[in-house]
Amino acid sequence: MRLYVPFLACMLALTPHLALGQTVGEIHPKSGATFESTYVWDGTELSPKSGSSFSSTWTFDGSEVRPKSGATFENTYEWDGEELRPKSGADFSNTYVWDGRELKPKSGSSFENTWTFDGEEWEPKSGGSFDDTWVVEGHVPVPVAALVVLGTV
């Protein structure tokens, strides 16, 4: 029993955001951010800062990103650490590849449909402006942030 209490205290100290449901990160447009366009990541779920519902909340378990309510094969995405693809109907054009800095379609990539991430901002590789740049504060996993910048969420 004596060993259990310190172990439990240590585990809670290592993962306070998971234990308490606190915000781990946020992603919002660089220009014109509102509560509705700012998304909060709590370690398992992404939801709008204001007006969230089960259908506007997305969950990520490390391998799949899907809506909390109404998930189907068509709106569920698989992530293997390098590729993000729809669970159903995946092809080279709607499968995105992540190389640690850039997210781009597996086939047909161009500067316009390739996104870069520098650890703080997601922006198009070419033609980016404040209007289509997304700022990450804290930590938001790549597949979750990718669905935001691609306009899926």
What does the model show?
- This protein is α+β, with helices and mostly antiparallel strands and 153 residues long.
- It has 3 helices and 12 strands.
- A 12-stranded antiparallel beta barrel has the order 1-2-3-4-5-6-7-8-9-10-11-12.
- A hairpin with a 3-residue loop joins strand 4 and strand 5.
- The chain is globular, with a radius of gyration of 17 Å.
Task: Provide a compact summary of the structure.
The chain has helices at 4-14, 16-20, 142-149; strands at residues 25-29, 39-41, 45-48, 58-60, 64-67, 77-79, 83-86, 96-98, 102-105, 115-117, 121-124, 134-138. It is α+β, with helices and mostly antiparallel strands and 153 residues long.
